[in-house]
Amino acid sequence: MILSSSARRVLAVLTWAVLALIYVPLIVVVFNSFNTNQAMTWPPDGFTLTWWKRAWESQGAREAVLTSLQVAALATLTALVLGTLLAFALQRFDFFGKSSVNLLVILPIALPGIVTGIALNNAFKGIMNVELSLLTLVVAHATFCIVTVFNNVQARLRRMGGNLEEASSDLGAGIWTTFRLVTFPQLRSALLAGGLLAFALSFDEIIVTTFTAGIDLTTLPIWILNNMFRPSQAPVVNVVAVVMILLSIVPIWIAQKLSSDTQGVQ
Amino acid sequence: MRLTALLAAPLVWLIAIYVVALAALLITALWRVDSFTGNLDRSTYSLDNIKTVLTTPLYRTVAIRTVGIAALVTVIDILIALPIAFYMAKVASPRIRGVLLIAVLTPLWASYLVKAFAWRATLSNGGLLEWLGAPVGLQSPGYGLTAVVLTQAYIWLPYVILPIYAGLERVPDSILNASSDLGAPAWTTLRLVVLPMLVPAIIAGSIFSFSLTLGDYITVNIVGGANQMLGNLVFVNAGAANNLPLAAAVALIPITIMIVYLAAVRRTGALDNL
Amino acid sequence: MRIRKLTRRTRAVVVALAIAPLLMVAACGDDGGSDEASEEAITELGENEGQVSILAWPGYVEDGSNDPEVDWVTPFEEDTGCEVTSKVYGTSDEALNLAKTGEYDVVAASGDLSLRLIAAGEAAPVNTDLVPNYENVFDFLKDTEWNSVDGVNYGVPHGYGANLLMYNEESVDPPTSWGAVFEEEELAKHKGKVTAYDSPIYIADAALYLMKHQPDLEITNPYALDQKQLDASVDLLKTQREYVGEYWSDYLKLISAFETGDTTIGTTWQVIVNAIGKDNVKAVLPEEGATAWNDTWMLSAQAENVNCAYAWMDYIVSPKANAQATEYFGEAPNSEAACAETTDPTHCETFHAGDEEFSKQLWYWRTPVKECLDGRDVECTDYSQWTTAWTEIKG
To answer: Could you tell me how many CB contacts below 8 A there are between chain A and chain B?
Structure first.
C-alpha cells in the first residue's frame, strides 16, 4: 500500500507524541524519587538522594522483587506449557465443544481480577482446604496467563499450517523430533511474545494476588501497596519503580532481538 | 488420542481450578453471613442476595457508571492504539519498530500502583498538568471519574497496542499492495481491507482494557475522588464487610456483562480467530 | 458460562466436577474457630515455640526491612528465639477476615474489631499475670469495654489516638465544631475540598455530632444506634457526600491532598498533621469531642505458638518497644514509662498520652451490635447494616 509521505509523517508524529505522553507520568516518578517531599507533590520541593539510599538498603524491596520474579517465572512456565498444549489441540484438531474451550481459556482474564481473586480464594480455602502459599499464587497467576500464550501460539500455528510438519513426518521424523526441529523453531517468537506478556501480567498483578498469596509472601506490588501506606516509605517506592523500568529494558531488548531474528528467517 | 493428550492437562487445570471456583462462588451467593460472628451460614439457600443486588438502586447506579467508564477507556485505547500499531507494523523501519516496541513495553514494568500515584500527582491542584497547561489555561479535571478514565486508559494502553500490532503484522503486505495496485486509495484500503482483518485483534485488545477496568477498585481509590466502582463494592463486601455471599452476588454483575460481551463477540466469529 | 455449545456429555462432566467439591464443603460445615475457643486463659507459660505470626496495622511490627533504622522486632527475636512473621492490614474489616484464617497467633485490633473477634470465637482470654509489663499500663486503658467481656480480659493495650478535625488555615476559618463538615452552610464554603475517613465506622462521627446537636434523637452512644438514629446519621452523611472531594483510608492520600490544596478540611490523625508539618495545616479536637481508636494486642483462639505470642505481647507493651512502635506510627503510648522512652520528649504531650481529661472526650471505636451498647431495650443496628449504609452513602 502506498501511503502519501504526508500521511506517513502524520502517523510518525502522532506515534511519537503519544509515546512522549506515555512517558510523562514515568518522568514524574523519576522526579519524585529525588523529591524531598514525602507526599510526592508537584512541583518537587527539593533534591535528595535519601530515597535512593534507603531503597538500596531496603532488604524488603529486594526480597519482594525476587519473590515477584520467582512467581512470574513459575506462572509463565506453567502458562507456556498449558497454553501451547491447548493451542495445538484447538488449532490442529476439530472436536465438539471446541469454541467452549476457546471461551474457557479467555474467561480468567476476561472476568475482572476481583472476581477471579475471591473465587480462587474461596476455592483454595473453602473447597481444597489448602493454605495460601507461593503455590496457590502461582496457580492463580498461571490460570489467567494461559490465554496470552495460547493466543500467540494459536495465531502462529494458523499462519504456519501443517505442511512442514507433515513433510517432516513423511520423511520419517517422530513426533518429538518434528516438534523439536520443525515446529518449535517456528513457534519460538510466539512463545516469547506470549511468555513476555504473561510475565508482565503476573509481575505487576495485585488484585488476584491480594486474595491468593500466602501471608509470608510479599510480591513487589504487595510491598509497594504496604509501603504506600507509610508516608516515610512512599518515595522509596518511586525509586524501586524507576529501577524496575530501567532493568526491564534489558529482557525486553533481548526478547525483541530474538523475535525479530526469527521473523527474519521466515 | 493425541487430542486427549494435548487437551487433558490444560482442561483439567482450567476446570478443576477455575470453573469449580466460579461455580462455588455462585453457590456462595445463595448463602448468608451471621452478622456478628461473621461466619458463613451454609444451611439455608435463598435468592435474597441476588434480589438485593437487583433491587437496590445503588448497585444499578454503580454498575452503569462502571460499564460506562470501561467502555470509554476501551474506545479511547483503541483509537490511540490503531494509528500507533499501524505505524509500528507497516510504516516504521525494522530498527525503529524495535525501538517503538521497547518504548511501548517498558511502562508495563513500572508498577500499576506507582503509575496510578504518578497520575494523582499529575492531576493534583497545581500539579504537573496545570503547571504545563498554565500558558494555555488548561485546568486539571481534578480527582473524579474523568481522572479514572484517563488513568485507566493510560495503564491499559500497552495491552491494547500489542494485540493490534500483532494483528497488523499478520496482514500480509501483498494484500495491501494488491489493493493499491487495483487503484484503491490508502484510506479505502485501510477501511475495507485492513480494518476487517483487524477486528479479532481489536476485540482481543478490548477484552483486556474492558475487563481490567471493569474489575478495578484501586485506581478509583487513588484518583477517583469520592466515587466507587463495582470492584469497590465487591471488595468492600468480600473483604471489609466480610459478606462473601453478597460480594458473590455483586460479582455476578461483571460476570454477566463479560459473558454477554464474549458471547456477542463470538457471534461475529471473532473469538475463533482470536 | 459456556451454555450454548456444550454437548450433553461435556455438560454432565462439568456439572459433576463443579458440584462434587461443593457437596464436600457443605458436608464439612463451619470450619471457623468458634468451637475451639477456650474459655479459660492459660495459667502458666511453657517453652517458646521458636516462631510467632502477627497481624497488625502497618508500622506496628517493624523489622528493619523497610527502614534499617526502624527495627524493634530483631531485639525481640534475639531475646526470645521467636522468629516473627507478620502481615499488615488496611482496615479493621480486612483484619477480621485475615484473623479468621487462623494463621496468626497475635492480632493488633482496634475497638471496632476486638469485640467481633471475641464474638467470632477468634480471640482467647489473656492472663495478664503472664504479661509482667502489663502493670505499667495506664489504668484507664485496662479492663475497658473493648478489651474485656464479662470481666474476662482479652488483650493488652497498645496505643490510642483521636480522629481530629484538620483544616488548612489559608482557606478555612479555624473551626471549633464538627459542624464545619456536617452543616450544609459550612460545607458549601469548601465544596469538593472536604474529606472523611473511608469506613463504615465513620458513621459514628455523624452520630456523635447528632448526639450533641439533635437531642430529640436521644443518641447516648454513637455506636448504639437504632434504625431511626442510623437513618438520621446516614442522611447527614449523604448531605456531606455532595461536598466531599475524596474519602481517605491510607494516609499518604490525605497528606498529598492537603499539601496540594485539593482538600482543605476533614478528619485526620495527629500523625498526619505531624507528617504534613506545615504551619497552615492545623488540627483541633472540636467541642463535641471525637471518635478515636484504641488498639489492643489480642491472642488468637487458634494460636499455635501461645508462648511466643505471650512473649510478644509482653515485649510490645514494655516501655521501650511500646515507645518505639507508637512513636513510629504516631499515637499515644500505653504507659508513663513508655513516655519516658520516646526519642521526641514532647511526643506524649503532642498525642495527649495519659491525659484523662482528653481521653474522656473521646468515643473509642466499638463494634456496633444488635444488642444496644448503651443498654437500651430496643434493637440496634449492627455493623453489617452500617457497611451497607456506608456503600449507599458513597453512592
So the answer is: 285
